[in-house]
């Protein structure tokens, strides 16, 4: 079975996608009839069972979703594109066949939307199941066992889309303590050929950015005939490569990487603004009962205003009042000054991160709101006022600007966000320098799908309440 796992996966996902597309068709058909109170829509069996599903499957295949392993957020992005193209292809077929006039436009629109949702949900569910049961996972060997390899392994085990099973590691030096200690060390770099032949792996990842250029070249030269794919992690950790373009200069045997600063482009900033306003308007309407409940709870819990305004630094350095549900007592400023004057440990903690883990100023309702990050919900009104984005760098106070150093230009280029890289990466458990680099990385690697992924991961982080205080 191990020998044919790639073919089995291929057939499994074609069958799964076909069923999801049929489900989308049937659901769109029923919803259209329910909305319009009409049952006069007719779709031929050829279109329903063969033509329409085949068009969607074709574009899924062209997106390399049956041949490549990729992070799941990237897979969702490609599914979205495939469903858009598939919907357009269905419309084209309807016009060519001269049956567009008798086919409901609502059905076609619902079909495209539901196909994307069902395809994404079904693929995620089956991939999580296969990952959990360690079924049909692609065996790989990782060459390197340092910090870079640790980051690689965390990415592999935490992403259902990749579907890799780590057979073992190769390392000349000491193994990085932590997650890598779970995997056997199969030998040294010099043993790569022997290990590949013994294990039968067809994929190898080289995660040794400190390896000398000549040694890396020789290592790849030796093992490339034995495997189908080699992944090389270059010495570019933290460098903005989210929109990288690769060119080969074959005469000079060089690889040229073109790096883009995505949010430096006006069109991308317009797309982000449209994304922000659309989701915020819809989201505000949906969560309005929650907002009213929290406001009533705060009002009853402690005296003072429900909403707290704190001045933060926005785009181009412009200050703005950042809204939050009040989570502290009304005399918080005086209590903080007294605490910092009398408690050297608290003063050191405050000067380090501008936060206190055990803050005596926090109210009972505030402790819960901070733990769940619900205190930040009123920032949706900052988004509607054009002062913040749904996703972006963490809003900071003026005193923190100096700590951004050479990265301050990235922060000032965009609006700060309600959530962002920092919030889904441990929040207050990360160091300040890590937060700064996360903000910079986000700005230079922005895409709509990165925002969607971060919003999704924010929900998971909030549920876990990790690093929030």
Count up the domains: 3
Please provide the count of β strands.
11
Helix and strand run: HHHHEHEEHEHEEEHEEHHHHEHEHH
- Major sheet: order of its strands? 3-2-1-4-5
Please identify the structural class as seen in this structure. alpha/beta
CA radius of gyration: 26 Å
Low-confidence stretches: none
Query: End-to-end distance, in Å?
Result: 49 Å
Silhouette: globular
Q: What does the average pLDDT come to?
A: 86
Largest sheet: 5 strands, parallel
Put simply, the count of helices is: 15
Helix content: 40-55%
Tell me about this structure.
By secondary structure, this protein is of the alpha/beta class. The chain folds into three domains: 2-133, no CATH class; 138-237, Rossmann fold, CATH 3.40.50; 264-327 and 362-464, no CATH class. The chain has 15 helices and eleven strands. Helix 13 (408-413) links the parallel strand 10 and strand 11 (417-419). The longest helix is centred in the middle third of the chain and has 36 residues, at 266-301. The two termini are 49 Å apart.
């Amino acid at each position: 079975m191990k020998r044919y796992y790639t073919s089995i996966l291929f057939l499994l996902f074609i069958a799964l996608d076909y069923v999801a597309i049929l489900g989308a068709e049937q659901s769109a058909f029923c919803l259209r009839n329910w909305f319009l109170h009409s049952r006069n829509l007719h779709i031929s069996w050829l279109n329903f069972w063969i033509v329409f599903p085949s068009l969607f499957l074709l574009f899924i295949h062209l997106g390399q979703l049956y041949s490549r392993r990729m992070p799941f957020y990237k897979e969702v992005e490609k599914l979205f594109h495939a469903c858009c193209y598939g919907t357009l292809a269905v419309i084209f077929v309807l016009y060519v066949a001269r049956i567009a006039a008798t086919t409901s436009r609502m059905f076609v629109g619902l079909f495209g939307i539901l196909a994307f949702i069902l395809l994404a949900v079904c693929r995620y569910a089956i991939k999580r199941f296969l990952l959990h049961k360690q079924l049909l996972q692609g065996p790989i060997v990782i060459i390197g066992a340092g910090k870079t390899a640790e980051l690689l392994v965390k990415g592999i085990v935490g992403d259902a889309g990749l579907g890799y099973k780590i057979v073992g590691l190769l390392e000349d030096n000491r193994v990085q303590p932590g997650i890598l200690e779970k995997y056997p060390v199969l030998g040294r770099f010099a043993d790569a050929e022997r290990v590949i032949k013994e294990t039968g792996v067809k994929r190898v990842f080289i995660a040794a950015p400190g390896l000398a250029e000549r040694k890396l070249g020789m290592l790849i030269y030796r093992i490339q005939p034995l495997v189908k794919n080699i992944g090389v992690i270059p010495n570019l950790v933290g460098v903005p490569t989210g929109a990288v373009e690769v060119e080969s200069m074959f005469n000079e045997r060089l690889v040229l990487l073109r790096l883009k600063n995505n949010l430096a482009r006006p069109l991308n900033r317009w797309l982000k603004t449209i994304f922000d306003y659309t989701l915020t308007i819809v989201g505000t309407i949906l969560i309005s009962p929650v907002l009213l409940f929290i406001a009533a709870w705060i009002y009853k819990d402690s005296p003072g205003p429900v909403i707290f305004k704190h001045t933060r630094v926005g785009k181009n350095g412009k200050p703005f009042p950042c809204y939050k549900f009040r989570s502290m007592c009304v005399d918080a400023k005086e209590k903080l000054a007294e605490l910092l004057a009398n408690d050297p440990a608290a003063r050191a903690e405050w000067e380090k991160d501008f936060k206190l883990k055990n803050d005596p100023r926090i109210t009972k309702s505030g402790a819960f709101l901070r733990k769940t990050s619900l205190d930040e919900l009123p920032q949706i009104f900052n988004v509607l006022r054009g002062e913040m984005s749904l996703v972006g760098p963490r809003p900071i106070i003026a005193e923190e600007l100096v700590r951004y150093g050479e990265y301050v230009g990235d922060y000032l280029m965009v609006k700060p966000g309600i959530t962002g890289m920092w919030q889904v990466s441990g929040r207050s458990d990360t160091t300040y320098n890590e937060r700064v680099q996360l903000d910079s990385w986000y700005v230079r690697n922005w895409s709509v799908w990165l925002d969607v992924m971060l919003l999704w991961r924010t929900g998971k982080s909030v549920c876990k309440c990790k690093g929030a205080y």
